[in-house]
What does this fold into?
Amino acid sequence: MQLKPLQDRVIALKEEEVTQTKSGILLGEAKEAPAYAIVESVGPDVKTIKKGDKIITKDYSTTSVKLDDHDYIIVKEEDILATL
It folds into this structure.
């Protein structure tokens, strides 16, 4: 099954959160830590984001979907905070 975004929505593959630094220091968990993801597909009304962009969103503004052992997020273009 393939996810196809509608209107101004973006589907992105969620990146795993870093819980430990390279030197072994365990990191705490922030309550509103930003989420990083790689854009997989964009809806027909999306103007500034394209496939392959790395995006930053807030966790509360996304819808999480698990498909084929991968964690995806669906987010409106206006809820994307930045690209990297």
